[in-house]
Each structure stands twice: as C-alpha cells, then as structure tokens.
Amino acid sequence: MTDAPITYTAAGVDVEAGDKAVELMKSAVARATRPEVLGGLGGFAGLFDASTLARMDRPILATSTDGVGTKVAIAQALDRHDTIGFDLVGMVVDDIVVCGAEPLFMTDYIACGKVVPERIAAIVSGIAAACEQAGTALVGGETAEHPGLLGEHEYDVAGAATGVVEHADILGPHRVAPGDLVLGLAASGLHSNGYSLVRRVIAAAGWALDRQVEDFGQTLGDELLTPTRVYAADLLTLIRDPQVREAGGVHALSHVTGGGLAANLARVLPPGVHARVHRESWSPPAVFTTIGALGKVPPLDLERTLNMGVGFVAVLPESAADRAAALLADAGIPAWVMGEIHAAQAAPIEEGVEVVRGSKGVHGGSVQILGNYAT
C-alpha cells in the first residue's frame, strides 16, 4: 500500500508526449490529402465527402486492413522509423487496388510501450508520404500507449483503408481466360512478409544488422529495412490506360504477400484454368538467395514465404502485355511476361511439380511454377 497519489503519468502514460507527437506530424499528414477530405487532425473521426460517388453508376466500396508484421523489429533495432509507414500503406492500399478500386482514404493505429514524440512522428510521416504517393488521404489515426504490455522501445502498427470501384470495372477471376498472359511486376525487396523466417535465419547465422553484405551493396539492416513498393497509383494508371483497355484491359491483379507467388496468383484465377509460371523469366535479387542459402531453407518453403522478387502480378490478354510492360517501366517498375493461362483440361501439367490451388479459403484455378531461376 502507498499513501502517495497514483497519476496516469505515474502509471506510464504521458498525454503531453502524445500531443507533442501530433504537433510534429501535422505538416506531413497535411500533404496526404484529397479534395474530398473535410476538417483536419484532432477530430473523433475523419470526414470524407462521398457526394462524388453519386455520379458513378454503381459504386462498390472496397476495404482492407493489415499491419507490417515483425519487420517492425528491424526498425526498432536500427532505431529508424521513417520507412515503416511505406510498408504499412503498401500492405493495405495495394490489396484494395487488386479488385480495380481506387483507395480513397486511410487511418492508422500505433500501439507502443512509451510515446516518444519524435519516433511516433517519424512513423506517421512515413505513412503520410506513402499515402501521398498512392493518392490516398490519411484522414485519421490513433496512438495508444501500453506500458507493461509493450516494452519502452516496442511498437506495432496497423491500418485500414477504403476505396471505390465501378461495379462494371471490378477485376477478378471472372475476367480471366485461357490465352491470357501473366505479367510479373518487380518487388523493391522483401516487402513486409516472411520476416519471422528472415530474422530466425540471420539470428542463427549470427549476422549483425550492421554487417556489410557485398551482394546487397549495403548493410544487412539497410537491405531488410528497404520499404515496400507502393503500386496503387501506377496500377490505376495501367488499368485506366486507353490503349490497354482497347486491347482487352487488365483482367486480374494479385498482390504477392504472405503465401508467396503461386498461392496468391491462384486466388485470382477461376476454376477450370491453369497458370504455368516460368522461373527462368527472372532472377530473384540477392537477398532472397542469401536468406535461402544462409538458413538452408527448402526452396519450396522459401517460395511460400517470400515474394522472390515479384511484388505484384497482372493477368491480361497477350495483346495488352507490351503496352502494360512499357507503362510500368515508365513508372520505374520492371515488368515482364512470366507465364500464361491455359484451360485446365488441356494444360500440360508437369509431373513431380507442386500444383497450388489457392489459399485463404479461395478455391479457384491452379498454378505451377516451373524450371529454374535465371542466373
């Protein structure tokens, strides 16, 4: 027992630090806006004028929520927090664009053991910069201090976003047909999946984050903290391009996240089709082969866990492939034909090669990844 009064501050929560964090992040958040946003920071809810949706024939809202996973442990170990926001935004808004929707607005949530205003401001500034790049408004967020639950230097981040697509323009399995090509879009690195495996491998190998790795051209920590590429704005440009639409348009998109390339591609294929993807069409960046070799990770396990250098996949008619690849290249995203879609009953199925038929409750088409990676 104690006779001394116990205050909220004594319990480990610093309200003034939270207020300071908001002041530090204001200018960055102000840039992540759209004309439809009403009001500013500090309200109980973010406001977005939806009247423009009334001009759509049949507006369909799309929503997504996600986090960054254990990649935050790398940011915390390096005490660098201004890039993790790109990982969060990429994981959320790029799921929305898969169905052809434009991400309109986003909110974020940060839970931490102790509010350090500069650290929180750095995280949110990264989120705001990524939202600005995606054309998505950051309309609100929450920072929660959880002393006793999280360590003083620990935090986790999550976010949610809402987008809209005209019903007639929804992308997905219903558009995919035999004869379509599979276009791979390069990742910027590991993105935000598989870090539990990656961290286990480097810990077992005894590699420090400040280790200079010749194959990476930078330190291990810099490589692991490379921000997730945010594709949303460039994919919307691709989807809306008149020449691409005239050539048949984009039929389906797949965000290559947890589960790897094959499982995520299978999620956007209809029953009755089979995709053949050819490893020889690309060479995974050094970080993937290094993690595989360092941890003696079985190749299939590596492919089920990491994106192997492919961050997104587009399925589209052969007549649209060249234009699509050129548009993406102009946006700084290398893209290449990596496979093709066949009718399942006529598809050449390779014996002894794993056939993947979807994940996360989706049972559609099938995928085989064939051959060896280019060297």
Automatic annotation (TrEMBL):
> Where found, per UniProt?
Cytoplasm
Q: Which organism is it from?
A: Nostocoides veronense
In short, the EC number is 6.3.3.1
Q: What region holds the PurM-like N-terminal domain? A: 58-165
Pfam families found in the cross-reference section: AIRS (PF00586), AIRS_C (PF02769)
Main location per the UniProt record? cytoplasm
Descriptive protein name: Phosphoribosylformylglycinamidine cyclo-ligase
Pathway, per record: Purine metabolism; IMP biosynthesis via de novo pathway; 5-amino-1-(5-phospho-D-ribosyl)imidazole from N(2)-formyl-N(1)-(5-phospho-D-ribosyl)glycinamide: step 2/2
Q: Give the lineage.
A: Bacteria, Bacillati, Actinomycetota, Actinomycetes, Micrococcales
Q: Keywords of this protein's UniProt record, alphabetized?
A: ATP-binding, Cytoplasm, Ligase, Nucleotide-binding, Purine biosynthesis
Classification via InterPro entries: PurM-like_C_dom (IPR010918), PurM-like_C_sf (IPR036676), PurM-like_N (IPR016188), PurM-like_N_sf (IPR036921), PurM_cligase (IPR004733)
Q: Which gene encodes it?
A: purM
Q: Which residues belong to any copy of the PurM-like C-terminal domain?
A: 178-345
Provide the catalytic activity annotation. Answer: 2-formamido-N(1)-(5-O-phospho-beta-D-ribosyl)acetamidine + ATP = 5-amino-1-(5-phospho-beta-D-ribosyl)imidazole + ADP + phosphate + H(+)
Task: Kindly give the HAMAP family that the UniProt entry links to this protein.
Answer: AIRS (MF_00741)
Say which family it is in. Answer: Belongs to the AIR synthase family.
